[in-house]
Design goal:
Elements: E1 11-12, E2 31-36, E3 46-50, E4 58-60, E5 84-91, E6 99-100, E7 116-120, E8 136-137, H1 139-147, E9 152-155, H2 169-177, E10 180-183, E11 193-198, E12 209-211, E13 215-217
Parallel strand pairs: 5-7, 6-8, 7-9, 9-10
Antiparallel strand pairs: 1-13, 2-3, 4-10, 4-12, 5-11, 11-13
């Protein structure tokens, strides 16, 4: 089916997922089992997949980094308010392997911000070629965004914490602030500014994350 005229207003910020998509080191990579195939004379093509739920562009459930007795919930229980609504895309001038502070945000945080903020770092260009030295969030930045009423933070890297982090201080600060996480966004073709975000996770009960199809739309 061809794209309609309205599709040209949709900005896809999702990384394509294929068998060459890299998973977090040690996590479960994507595999596909083809059970039936039309080309073989079957009535339908039918596939099964095995994969980490933290694949490519995805949303974390808070039970990924907080126990149930601390208030962590599965991605299927997260409020959809976090994943749909006005957002602000911010450019970040940060080196690979650094934690992003408010000072790294181009133009600072003095301007108006929508309740969902997406950070474009450019430090993780391609899930097909994993680089471990991507940038991540600092606690100072999380707290500064929380003070501005931000309810969702998205980033164009596989994690809001550095790859070798054991304490996950950004995840913990995000949990304390009641903020949701989007990771692995594709923002290299997106300019800074305000948009409508749609990045709905699957309603996977008890699961700690879900892949999303994330798009930006012009604000109404």
């Amino acid at each position: 089916m061809s794209a309609g005229a309205n599709d040209r207003a949709i900005i896809d910020i999702t990384h394509a997922v294929g068998l060459d998509t890299q998973a977090w080191p040690g996590d479960t990579p994507l595999t596909r089992e083809v059970l039936l195939r039309r080309e073989n004379g079957d009535p339908v093509t039918l596939s099964a997949i095995r994969s980490t739920v933290h694949l490519g562009t995805h949303a974390d459930g808070s039970n990924h980094y907080a126990r149930a007795d601390e208030g962590g919930v599965s991605i299927g229980e997260m409020s959809l308010t976090h994943f749909i609504g006005p957002c602000t895309v911010l450019d970040v001038d940060v080196a690979r392997g650094e934690r992003i502070t408010p000072a790294h945000v181009r133009g600072g945080l003095s301007g108006s911000l929508r309740p969902r903020v997406l950070l474009r770092t450019g430090t993780f260009p391609d899930f097909r070629r994993w680089n471990a030295d991507f940038a991540a969030l600092s606690v100072d930045l999380v707290e500064a965004l929380a003070a501005r009423g931000v309810i969702t933070i998205g980033i164009d890297t596989p994690s809001v914490d550095l790859q070798d982090s054991k304490t996950l201080e950004a995840h913990r600060a995000i949990f304390r602030a009641g903020i949701a996480i989007l990771e692995g966004l594709r923002l290299d073709h997106v300019g800074p500014g305000d948009y409508e975000l749609v990045a709905l996770p699957l309603r996977l009960m008890e699961f700690d994350a879900s892949p999303v199809r994330a798009v930006l739309l012009p604000l109404r």
